[in-house]
Amino acid sequence: MILRHDLSDDVLPDSTAWIDYFNPRAASPEKEFLGKLIEKGNVIWICPPVFQEILQGAKSGKAATFYKSFLLRCRRGRMGIYKAAELAAEIYRTLRPKGVTIRKPNDCLIAAYALLNNLALLHHDKDFDPIEKYFGLKVVS
Prior knowledge:
Strand content: under 5%
Mean pLDDT: 92
CATH superfamily: 5'-nuclease
Number of helices: 7
CATH architecture: 3-Layer(aba) Sandwich
Radius of gyration: 15 Å
Largest sheet: 2 strands, parallel
Shape: globular
Distance between the termini: 9 Å
Order of helices and strands: EHHHHHHEH
Strand order of the largest sheet: 1-2
CATH class: Alpha Beta
Number of domains: 1
């Protein structure tokens, strides 16, 4: 699979992309694409739930320190924590009657940050597919 993206858009990588990026043995289109974005100096965003997921998955304190210093170089901006939480709840509530249950509520929150800040989401997680369909989430594809 080849990922395509309008490079004028800022990108918010989901933790699925970051996990692949930080794993030397992983191979995925998302890892390759994220590496190219970093090499070219594109604007890459981080949001609190992704930051948390990456740090909690670190296998050691040394790895967590490395991930933290790397991720804090990403753009954070003013992402409106409560506004994002409200939109995340709306996403979850709207999808339930449509027969869609998001497995990880953090994915609703990550999508909300992307939507509120007009960011393209880089991921490989099927939970984002219905959010893209029903809420117009921009994704790298």
